[in-house]
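Structure in, sequence out. Go:
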């Protein structure tokens, strides 16, 4: 179920969204890379597995804004879509690629 516009928060565009809006060549390159990435065998397998789990949990397409996700430990958990998108803390390579947290 989509919330009415009056209930949605209006936020500005992120820095990357502004960049890709203003640089169509870069956006085209990114979209080409993303299309190739999504076609990779391991990504297709991962997506199929999560779709299967999402359907089994009864959350696929019902508008409850819940999603299934892989954790670093390899578990599949149910979590809100908003926190599942772009999460930087629950994948094995994240801590190595982003460095240590600053205190």
């Amino acid at each position: 179920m989509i919330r009415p516009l009056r209930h949605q928060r209006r936020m500005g565009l992120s820095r990357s969204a502004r960049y890709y809006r203003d640089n169509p060549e870069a956006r085209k390159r990114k979209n080409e890379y993303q299309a190739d990435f999504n076609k990779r065998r391991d990504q297709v397998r991962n997506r199929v597995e999560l779709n299967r789990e999402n359907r089994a949990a009864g959350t696929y397409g019902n508008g409850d804004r819940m999603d299934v996700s892989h954790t670093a430990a390899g578990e599949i958990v149910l979590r809100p879509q908003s926190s599942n998108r772009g999460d930087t803390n629950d994948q094995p390579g994240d801590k190595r690629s982003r460095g240590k947290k600053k205190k």
